[in-house]
Please model this.
Amino acid sequence: MAATDYGSHRLVVGAHYGMRDWLAQRVTAVVMALYTVFMLVVVFWPGQLDYARWQALFANQATKLFTLVALLAVLYHVWVGMRDIWMDYVKPVGLRLSLQVLTIMWLLACVGGAVQVLWRV
Model:
């Protein structure tokens, strides 16, 4: 249950605290697993695995979109995990907030770089 601080007392204000994050971790893990299977099929598919084949694969909009969705799943999965690590193990509030902001900035930079690479093909 969610709790809100009121002085030295904690007031319970709702149920299913953390359920959204738990579900997000499971859903993003499924997306990552599906993308991994897709990439394994591509790699082990009969034929030569060369630049032309990769270029043709990623010229397809569906592949680009699936890759972007998988990347966003990875990044959200990382965010939930890192945020929980910062909250659980970094006690000074200012340091924890700084680490969370740096994590968000790094993840956004990763998305920006990935979008540039995906849509450059």
Notes: Residues 19-118 form a domain with the 3 helical TM bundles of succinate and fumarate reductases fold (CATH 1.20.1300.10). The chain has one domain: 19-118.
